């Protein structure tokens, strides 16, 4: 895989269902960008399935530095969260939350059965997901005086930089996104214009 691309899903998936010995496992995958968003989605699913026995999940955030969490929610240790997280790893995706909701059917599945059920429900959720490859982008704030506008705009055009927002008054600010592998060349392009400052913000 190229060093400046990552994979994620474009939208929340349809609910999937895996059954084993009367237990039902509902699987969901969501694109996420923060832990706050993850908490909100968990609350939503718990409200929707308020009669369920377990709401197990795993998530991963980040492209350069990875954060992740796997939660068994009362199931035996590592029988739910880690099998779900294993699917995030095997599909090589990030910025993603997978929740598997379990309704107990009266028959114990044992740890191997639970691992298989949670892994399968997570895999089914990922199989219906729309996975997209995206570039890892850095964001920069360019600050300059109005008189340097032409130079700045020329570099933006030559380097084909993405403008996110701009404030063009006597003193100007432009927010740009640059693909990771092109970031250094972009920084170098602004070096000759010593009155133009480029600051990486993301």
From TrEMBL:
Pfam families with a match to the protein in the record: Impact_N (PF01205)
Domain Impact N-terminal as annotated: residue spans: 21-125
InterPro entries per UniProt: Impact, Impact_N, Impact_N_sf, Ribosomal_Su5_D2-typ_SF
Domain of life: Bacteria
Biological process terms in GO annotation: regulation of translational initiation
One Gene Ontology CC term in the entry: cytoplasm
Family statement drawn from the similarity comment of this UniProt entry: Belongs to the IMPACT family.
Name assigned to this protein: Uncharacterized protein, YigZ family
């Amino acid at each position: 895989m190229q060093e400046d691309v990552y994979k994620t899903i474009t939208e929340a998936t349809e609910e999937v269902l895996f059954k084993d010995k009367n237990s039902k496992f509902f699987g969901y995958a969501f694109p996420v960008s923060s832990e706050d968003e993850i908490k909100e989605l968990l609350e939503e699913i718990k409200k929707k399935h308020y009669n369920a026995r377990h709401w197990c999940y795993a998530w991963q955030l980040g492209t350069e530095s990875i954060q992740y969490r796997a939660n068994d929610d009362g199931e035996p240790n590592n029988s739910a969260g880690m099998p779900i997280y294993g699917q995030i790893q095997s599909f090589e995706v990030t910025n993603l939350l997978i929740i598997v909701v379990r309704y107990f059917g009266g028959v114990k599945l044992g740890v191997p059965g639970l691992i298989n059920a949670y892994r399968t429900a997570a895999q089914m959720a990922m199989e219906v997901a729309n996975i997209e490859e995206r570039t890892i982008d850095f964001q920069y704030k360019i600050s300059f005086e109005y008189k340097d506008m032409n130079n700045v705009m020329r570099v933006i055009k030559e380097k084909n930089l993405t403008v996110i927002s701009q404030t063009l008054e006597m003193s100007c600010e432009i927010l740009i996104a640059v693909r990771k592998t092109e970031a250094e060349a972009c920084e170098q392009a602004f070096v000759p214009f010593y009155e133009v400052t480029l600051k990486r913000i993301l």
